[in-house]
Amino acid sequence: MATVLIKNGEYRNKPVRNATFALMKGYQVGAKGNYVTVDSAGYFGSEYTTVRVKVDSIHDIEFTDGEPVQTVKAAVTKAIVPVETDEEVMARIATRFDILDEMTKATITGDVRAMIVVGPPGVGKSYGVEYQLEKAGIFEKISGKKIKYEVIKGAMTPIGLYCALYKHCDAKNVIVFDDCDSIFMDDLALNILKAALDSGKRRRICWNSDSHMLSREGVPDQFEFKGSAIFITNINFDNIKSKRLQDHLGALQSRCHFLDLTLNTMRDKFLRIKQIFLKGDLFQDYDLTQEQSEEILEFMDQKKDQLREMSLRMALKIADLIKISPNWRAMAENTVMKNDR
User: Is 118 within 8 Å of 259 (Cβ atoms)?
Assistant: First the structure.
């Protein structure tokens, strides 16, 4: 019998991670999201047999030629993971973001010289890093001194990466690469990044070919990088299929501090949004009543499988609509939700 390894999914808000089931029906895309149908073999309780486990994409599952059902059932029973309560999920997430704040402060002082931060888009990981950098750089701004940090977003060429690192190569400088995932597609850029994120005592970075751009900008063909670097990415390293890229990413992880914010399910993302809301930071720039704010959260919870994305940005988009019209729900259904027809 065929089996399926579900690396990351959920059923009735219960996370399913790295569990193998007997496959009943293949991967399907439905009105309420993507799912695969399996024999649960008691994984979710004796009352559930054939169930549909939700996944974000086909990359979250792996089909295999199976063993006998009895063997699969035994393996699944051992793989049961205790289900976190909402409070436990929010506590876990809060701890990770507190660590992100502390690690960012440590890059500013030079105690941490390199860090990779992984998490889905729109959960506030970039905001937290930038807030700590701006807070630390306020005295430079007031005194008119050179700002010792820079946040670079978007596509990045190998030579652009090299020049950016040289610009911030001095000690106590911090350079942040935010959503610069194009670096992963280029071996030269990856090798430069590996050199910059190395935890060794000396990080020497070289450009071993002639370049008119380096000559024009006065950038040497080699230098020692003494600053700190933070690389923020939406890519889940565990889901990468390319062997070439796996090797590169493994080398990056071994060279520097690696922080996964563990926001792997739709439920995790929603509870992160709820967490920001409870702190009073979510709609602080909007003149909304408490009732309106709570309606937005309730709407997102109810429609989480139909929203185009679950993010802080999505909450603010809906807040824009609630300011525009009392008919905001209908507007949201036509602008921020998936069209399955």
Answer: yes
Q: Which two tokens stand for residue 322?
A: 């609630």
Structure tokens at 270: 């929603």
User: Looking at 204, 227, 260, which one is the last position of a domain?
Assistant: 260
Closest CA to 33 of 7, 9, 16: 9
Q: What is the DSSP track for 264-300?
A: -SHHHHHHHHHHHHHHT-SSTTS---HHHHHHHHHHH
Same domain, 216 and 273: no
d(CA 149, CA 108): 9
Quote the pTM value.
0.71
Q: Poorest-confidence range of 78-87, 156-165, 208-217? A: 78-87
Q: What are phi and psi for residue 83, nearest 5 degrees?
A: -85, 130
Instruction: Domain of residue 314: give its range.
Output: 266-335
Distance of alpha carbon 100 from alpha carbon 41, whole angstroms: 39
Is residue 277 situated within a structural domain?
yes
Angle among Cα 71, 37, 75 to the nearest 5 degrees reads 20
Query: Looking at residue 83, what is its pLDDT?
Result: 72
In the 8-state DSSP scheme, what is residue 59? G
The residues, any chain, with a CB within 8 Å of residue 299's CB and separated by 6 or more, are 318, 329, 332
